[in-house]
């Protein structure tokens, strides 16, 4: 059973994550984790903090010897360069759309800083670091994950015709992780124009997973369905307000005949589909097709041109507080989406194939894959 | 900590659920559970099985004395009238969109019946029964839940202007649990016409929760966010492929200023909002506004005019098997949506306010509500 | 992940258990579950209720087809013949040593019956039924479990020189599940004599497990240690107040050289030990030797010659209430000990070797056993 | 819900713990955590490493602002001064009684160092640090915990007549945390003499908890019993092989009349007992009397005069490896016992009284305590 805990405030000393349950015998390259952390910080529309102040580097404090997992818990630490939590001024005007107000109520905090330090999306760096380890695990079985931006505000990218590897290569050096260059130009324009007005933007990212073995997750108990677990993991990324698996809301508008992916068989391909409207999940279980999930992000709640709020002490109307922030975080959110997806798939993988060592898991994996292709 | 397990095959002896963690001192009226079970079975577009063969009635085997909860686990049993699992013929042609094929692979079953008996949506009756108990618990705190049909296929209901209680009353005797009578007529027509072609339909339902105390769920750890838990619970309803909280995908297309719900304060109302685009959840925590969630349902995978499939033994192309089934289950899915939502909110409620007895919980609830309105 | 919930009051309709996570493809013989239930009810010193009124028979309501597990949750039901919970008189005088008083406080119950109905050891029948399924699972891997009585009151059985199979055969038709016939006679005498005084007796039982594969449980995180999980499972059997693994408290009195089991190697035996003071667990992990655990049972708290107590309403001194009860339950407790041990070992087994189907698990098991004997 | 993960190898960079679920508003004094860490390192019979090399100091990386908990996860870090894991030589001869051999099998490690680095008791420093935070939480409700040494090898301390506070004061400056000075002298002699022979010693420690509110834990489901949870927590301390709650094994030798704590009532004391053979737990629930638990420790497995073992590569007989180690760790184990007990009681406390803020919990606690004393 793979599990984790994270800790860390936005301007505290560090973000910390413990990932428990990774099998022994996996090579973990610290640089690959850092590469994921960099991706999270990149993206047109990020604030100066992301691109300049914080250059996240992971320290692996436990769980490895000689760069190989021991089977023991992996401790990851990412230092905050801006460790000013004890010096920063108190905050009294909650931002609409943020946890500020409700966090103060729930925990009886008198200073909103006590909320926003943990409610900040900075926490996701810890999830990205852990997810990077999970991605390394999955790569051993040829499972690959990507994310890309499919919309920013009203501008849609057109990527339906692109293959997994085409999207991967096209997003590599893209400022917005977008595989449609034309759309990307318009998106950048839109970001620039909205930035000038002190406003913010949301969008949609897509996560895709390739070479997932069939049979991860289960229909036998509702809380073991992988679609549910992925939905929870992705919905718990800050600002995500909508999730679609495969065809998503569009399939509610079509008939069964137009939605369900018919089943075919050829000796050399075994069972296969010509379509993937299910997004790789039937009955909450992976069916061997690519997992495809889209997530809608609301615009980030910190606006330079701040919205109406109320001082929690004086109860007088005021503008919401302005924390250093970004205009648009869709590309970064996609990177976080990859990470949490990698974690959930790794969980289901280890549950199915055993959990102690790479050697045993590889045997179990091969045996099963051979059996189901008979 | 509230938790549950369910068991039961579609044509087995019974569905069984154990709900552990309900506090002592709650009155449980069996008839109210049955009323929820009836709602699940009703709805235009259901098969004969739902409306005639199965008339679900719950038996409460444990957890009560004199109709009051003891604090001990509650066992619920719903008998299947059609208990024929051992006599029904084997099934070899998996239905696209169903767990049939992947279930057979995952568990090495040679007869798809070994999959479809549990992968059947009949299992949801157990969740509805448990959810009904949770609704009784929440009612003690004035928390109310409804569900209604907002789309079937391409036909949208227009309900944005209706209040919670208006939707509740308008859906009461509606064959499709739809609050827009005009739209409902068109939906019924559409169901009739699609039925003739042996095809199936999906749609969208909405769940709303009123009077939720602010502060359920938490932003302090990603897996404690209530938005994530609700997403998991709802996505694990069979056929759900998309979820939107509040404004959902629409908020990805707007600016922050147009999305976030500004904060106001009046002595007699305390903190309040004029809009509820967040759907009652900010930072993964309830903010006191109504929880509003939409779920997209794909058309059900059993088609009378069956799709292309493959016999898993002969590997020859064949039409998919046809199990007794419905044309459209959107209203029923909404009832299930209520149930799983009630469970998740009850969980968060008990975590926040203690878990042993109604008396203690009511004290904790009152104290907190008074504190946050100072 | 194997998990379960149980429900049921002592004089309610039935005991119910749901066991979730059993792999597909396991043959489950209902009679073998019943045989375990009978063992739990047998034993010299039990009350008339156990031997006459309740003759427990399990009904398997879900999870099987053709006597084979489907991979779906298994629902077990044991009816109470004495279903009188709604008619029995209220109870006001708590029994010392029982949950009566504290249960009433915790849940604010005014009638102790609301406590004792669930706090009764009758609940353990559900655990025994589930444990019987786990034993069937373990038998597929040649893992065997036994329990026997090693002390009743001050009378010790001498069984140190007996082998696993000798204990098994000697306890088969023993009225006290005791492998030392001489001691057993004295124990019976003691029970008879104590019964006459309206008093009760405790004792010690031992659970042994044979052919456990090395490597179950883990030292990598404290809550994954199998010694801890077994201790929790056994301590949660009603009346257990002490637990010893292997040499137990005795090893606290000896030196390291006298306690630790030296390691040897022979080509035909691979690594082996000449002693088993560790009771099969080193570092919280099975080492391939027999698991050996002893549990101390306090005398049961219901005494015919009742102890001093207080009426919870009048607050006046009174004798404790007398519920129909046994004089000595050590043999039965041993049977429960087997059941909970079987569950915990099955959990660790499935975590290590994967969890979906007997076919896959057998492959993983063989591969690992071969690898570690290289 | 309180939960935690720890990480860290014995000679790695650091031990790390994340404690999730501590309520907001608790003052945490770093020095008090350090004091617990020092206690764990002290004690006659410890190696030079404990007393000189490692002087554990905790760094609190997350979860506090101004020394007060935020409600967010608390991250604790204890650096290893001896961070040599990558330089230390491989180990091939497993120590009997240690996880060395079985760890190598389970995870297919070729170097026993890959096992012993995590299987080392150094890991318990992380648990002690977390437990110290839990103790601070419990102190807010006047709950106090102590541990003391009641036996080393065959030498028993006589402390039955001492009160809680007497034991506390007598162990304060005791080299062995023993409240019986005469016994302690003999114990020290025994340690000295055994040390000379290169052997090791075990013993028994006792944990006591005072002012525990009645009603923590529950009998309603077996895995919610606090006796089981405490047994698991204590058994998972390295070297613990036996556990007794209250009278423990002794109560198996007595009659019910001699064991069960009769119930009395006086207006000024409410319900009370004159004896505490149950050790504060009836039906798995705290009854308001002191919790009393004894744990048996086997002698530590590292012997200077090493036992017979086998080189895992050559399969030749050899003496077991000798790691820097202690002769006797009973006093330290008691400190760990306090920590894990504090954690489990805090869990049960938060489950019963709600979990968000000290203010709310204090209200719930007072209300309940008043109700049950009516």
Task: Characterise the protein shown here.
The structure is a homotetramer of 374-residue chains. With 374 residues, chain A is an alpha+beta fold. Chain A has a single domain, classed as Chorismate synthase AroC (Chorismate synthase, AroC fold). Chain A is built from 11 helices and 17 strands. Chain A has a 5-stranded antiparallel sheet with strand order 8-7-9-15-10. A 4-stranded antiparallel sheet of chain A has the order 1-2-6-3, covered by helices on one side. In chain A, a hairpin with a 2-residue loop joins strand 13 and strand 14. The longest helix of chain A is centred in the C-terminal third of the chain and has 24 residues. Chain A is globular and about 70 Å long. Chains in contact: A-B, A-C, A-D, B-C, B-D, C-D. Chains A and B meet through helix 3, helix 4, helix 8, strand 10 and helix 9 of A and helix 3, helix 4, helix 8, strand 10 and helix 9 of B.
Estimate percent helicity of chain A: 25-40%
Residue stretches of chain A low in confidence (pLDDT < 50, at least 5 long) are none
β-strand percent of chain A reads: 15-25%
Overall pLDDT of chain A: 95
Question: Which radius of gyration of chain A do the C-alpha atoms yield?
Answer: 22 Å
Largest interface: A-B, 105 and 105 residues
The CATH topology annotation of chain A reads as Chorismate synthase, AroC fold
Report the CATH superfamily of chain A: Chorismate synthase AroC
**How many extended strands of chain A?**
17
Shape of chain A: globular
**What profile does the largest beta sheet of chain A have?**
5 strands, antiparallel
Give the strand order, joined by hyphens, for the main sheet of chain A: 8-7-9-15-10
> At CATH's second level, what is the architecture of chain A?
4-Layer Sandwich
Multimer state? homotetramer
CATH class assignment of chain A: Alpha Beta
Number of helices of chain A: 11
Total separate domains of chain A: 1
User: How far apart lie the N and C ends of chain A?
Assistant: 29 Å
* Topology pattern of chain A, helix = H, strand = E: EEHHEEEEHHHEEHHEHEHEEEEEEEHH
Q: Structural class, judged by helices and strands of chain A?
A: alpha+beta
């Amino acid at each position: 059973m793979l599990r984790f805990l994270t800790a860390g405030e936005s301007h505290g000393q560090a973000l910390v994550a413990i990932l428990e349950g990774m099998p022994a015998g996996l090579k973990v390259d610290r640089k690959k984790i850092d590469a994921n952390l960099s991706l999270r910080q990149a993206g047109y529309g990020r604030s100066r903090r992301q691109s300049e102040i914080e250059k996240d580097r992971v320290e692996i404090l436990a769980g490895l010897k000689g760069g190989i997992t021991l089977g023991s818990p992996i401790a990851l630490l990412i230092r905050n360069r801006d460790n000013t939590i004890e010096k920063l001024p108190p905050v009294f005007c909650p931002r609409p759309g943020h946890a500020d107000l409700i966090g103060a109520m729930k925990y009886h905090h008198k200073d909103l800083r006590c909320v926003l330090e943990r409610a900040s999306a900075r926490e996701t760096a810890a999830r990205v670091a852990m997810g990077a380890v999970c991605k390394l695990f999955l790569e051993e079985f040829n499972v690959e994950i990507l994310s890309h931006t499919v919309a920013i505000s009203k501008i849609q990218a057109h990527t339906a015709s692109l293959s997994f590897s085409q999207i991967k290569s096209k997003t590599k050096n893209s400022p917005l992780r977008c595989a449609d260059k034309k759309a990307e130009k318009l998106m950048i324009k839109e970001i620039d124009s909205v930035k000038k007005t002190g406003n913010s933007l949301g969008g949609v990212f897509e996560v895709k997973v390739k070479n997932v073995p069939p049979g991860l997750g289960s229909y036998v108990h509702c809380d073991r369905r992988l679609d549910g677990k992925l939905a929870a993991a992705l919905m718990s990324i800050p600002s995500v307000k909508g999730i679609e698996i495969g065809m998503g809301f569009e399939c509610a508008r079509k008939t069964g005949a137009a939605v369900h992916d018919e089943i075919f068989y050829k000796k050399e391909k075994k069972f296969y589909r010509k379509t993937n409207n299910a997004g790789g999940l039937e009955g909450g279980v992976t069916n061997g097709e690519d997992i495809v999930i889209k997530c809608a992000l609301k615009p980030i709640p910190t606006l330079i041109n701040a919205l109406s709020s109320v001082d929690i002490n004086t109860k007088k109307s005021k503008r919401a507080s302005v924390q250093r922030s970004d205009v648009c975080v869709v590309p970064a959110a996609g990177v976080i989406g990859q990470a949490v997806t990698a974690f959930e798939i790794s969980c289901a993988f280890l549950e199915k194939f055993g959990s102690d060592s790479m050697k045993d898991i590889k045997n179990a994996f091969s045996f099963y894959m051979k059996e189901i292709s008979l």
